[in-house]
Amino acid sequence: MDATVSHDPLFEIVTSSTIQRNTLADLAAEKIAAIRIPDFLTAQEQQDLLERLLEAEFESYGSERVYPQVMRFGVAVSDYNEHGTLSDRYWEALDSNGDITGRLKLPYDPFRLCRERIGAELPFPVEIGTRRGRSFAPGVFREPNNGFQVHFDDARREFPTNLVDENLIAQFAFNLYLSVPEEGGETVIWRHHWMPEDESHRLPNSYGYAETVVARAESLEIRPNVGDVLLLNPRFFHAVRPSRGARRISLGFSLGLTDDGRLLTWG
User: Fold this and answer.
1) Which tens digit of pLDDT belongs to each residue from 76-88?
2) How confident is the model over 178-220, as pLDDT tens digits?
3) Hey, which of 97, 152, 160, 172 has its CA 20 to 30 A from 142?
4) Which of 213, 207, 204 is nearest to 66 (CA)?
C-alpha cells in the first residue's frame, strides 16, 4: 500500500493585501507559517528605491560566521552579538554609518513607509524598538545571492540578557523584495523549532546548520516576486537558496510583538 503523505493544516502561507490583526495573531500562534503581501510598494516606489540601492556600496557580513558570503547595506544586530549581549560596537557603527535613508539620498524613509503600511489596519502603530532607551537601526538591505544556510532567528535565545527594553511574546521577520533572480532565490521554511540536539548539526563557527537538522520536517518553499512582502515566524528553521541571474535584494527587519500588544522593529 502506498504511504500517505500528510500535511499540517496549521503550516500554510496566507496571501493578503494587508496585515490584519487576526492574521497576525494566527502567525504568532503558529496557526499559519507566513503571510505574503503582493505589491506592497507601488511600481514607482520600488523602482526609485532599487535604483538608489544599485548605486550603493554593500558590505559583507562577518565572513567567519556567515558563509557563503551575504552582502548588506546598513547595520544589523547579528554582527554585534558578543556572548548573548549586544556589543557597544553596534551603537558605534550606527553613529558612524549615519541615517540610512540619507545615505541613499531618498526623498522618503522606506523603513518608515513599511512600518506605516504594516500598521495601517492594526489598532496600534509600529515603532522602532529600543535598548536602554536608545533606538535601533530601522532595518537593513540584504543581498544573499549565494543563499542563507538553514538557521533560525530568536532574540530570546540569541540575546538571553534581553535585546529590547520590552517583553516580547512573539517574533516575526519582515522581508520586502526589491530585486529577484531569474532562477533560484527561494525561501524555504521548515516546521521545526530549535532543540538542544540540533547543535550536533551546526556548521563549524557558523550561524547555520547542515540541512540534516530538518531532514524529517515538513517544509514550504516560496519564490518571491518583486514587490512582495513575506512576513514569517523566524523561530521556524528557514533558508534561502542560491540565486542565478539578477541580484536578490530585499529590505528587511525583525518585528517583535510585546506583551501589551505593540509591534517593535529592529535591524
Assistant:
1) 999 999 999 999 9
2) 999 999 999 999 999 999 999 999 999 999 999 999 999 999 9
3) 160
4) 207
Burial of residue 51 (CB within 10 Å: 0-12, 13-18, 19+) is exposed
220's enclosing H/E stretch is strand 219-222
What is the grid cell recorded at 258?
510585546
Cβ-based neighbour number of residue 23 at 10 Å: 17
User: Do 243 and 143 touch, CB atoms closer than 8 A?
Assistant: no
Question: If 0-12 CB within 10 Å is exposed, 13-18 middle and 19+ buried, where does residue 100 land?
Answer: buried
Residue 224: closest CA among 188, 253, 190: 188
Q: What distances in angstroms separate CA 200 from CA 8, 62, 68, 207, one per listed residue?
A: 27, 23, 20, 13
- Residues 61 and 102: their CA atoms lie apart, in Å, by 22
Q: What's the grid cell of residue 120? A: 495601517
Beta bridge partners of 37: 229
Each residue's pLDDT tens digit, 17-68:
999 999 999 999 999 999 999 999 999 999 999 999 999 999 999 888 999 9
With 0-12 / 13-18 / 19 or more C-beta atoms within 10 angstroms meaning exposed / middle / buried, residue 42 is exposed
Domains of the chain: 13-266 (2.60.120.620)
Which grid cell is 67? 558563509
The C-alpha atoms of residue 134 and residue 203 are separated, in whole angstroms, by: 34
Joined grid coordinates for residue 186: 527561494
Residue 152, phi-psi category: left (phi > 0), alpha (psi -120 to 50), beta (remainder): beta
